[in-house]
Amino acid sequence: MSRLLIKLIGLFLLFLGLYFFGQDIIFASGYYSYFYSKIPATGSVLAIMAGVISLIFFRRVTGNLGWIFLGIGIVLVFLSGGVILRPTSLWNFLVAFTALAAGYKLLTEGRINF
User: Fold this and answer.
1) What radius of gyration, in Å, describes the C-alpha atoms of the chain?
2) Are 74 and 60 contained in the same domain?
3) Which stretch of 12-21, 32-41, 71-80, 94-103 has the lowest confidence by average pLDDT?
4) Which residue, 57, 63, 96, 107, has most beta carbons within 10 Å?
């Protein structure tokens, strides 16, 4: 098989795994009655924006600072309560994780060793 076809299959499996994982994640927003209760939500948006901008536009200048901002943003999203994780079956988790791992392995190495 050609390397391009293997990479396309890997990319398809990677997106399929992300799709199955993403079905059980709900992002929600709500109205907050006090100003201090929305600080984690606002901080998460600002940290994720700063991380993405520094990784895309200022990679050489900021170094790993963009990854740190992204990590802080993800933690603040969970602290704000804006992410709801629905229960999933073991079968769905197995399919999603297998597709994700196989797709990544095909993209990076071009083969899967059993």
Assistant:
1) 18
2) yes
3) 32-41
4) 96
Ranking 26-35, 54-63, 88-97 by mean pLDDT, the lowest is 26-35
- CA–CA distances in Å: residue 60 to residues 51, 65, 67, 76: 13, 10, 13, 26
66 and 110, same domain (yes or no) = no
- Candidates 67, 83, 78, 85; CA nearest to 40 is 78
Mean pLDDT of 37-52: 78
Per-residue burial over 98-114, b = 16 or more CB atoms within 10 Å of its CB, e = otherwise = ebbebbebbbeeeeeee
- Consecutive H or E run containing 27: strand 25-27
- CA-to-CA distance for 44 and 32, rounded, in angstroms? 16
